[in-house]
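Bit of a strange request maybe. I'm writing a small parser for structure token strings and I need a real example to test against, not something I typed by hand. Could someone generate the tokens for this chain?
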Amino acid sequence: MSNAAQDVDTAAVATAVPTAGRKKVNEQDRAPLAITIRIFIYLVAVHFFAGFLFLLFYVAGAK
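Reply from user aminoacidic:
Good idea to test on real output. This should exercise your parser:
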């Protein structure tokens, strides 16, 4: 590869790099909103259920 071809490739790479501070959000990088909300609700429900079981065993163990 000649130096001229190397310079062209280097220039193409330098222009392909996005500028600092600008981050393009790609839709494929995020889960859909409905799935995010569903996961949040499941997490809250599981924690409430675990808390209920903890309270149940705590009260049952108190003599």
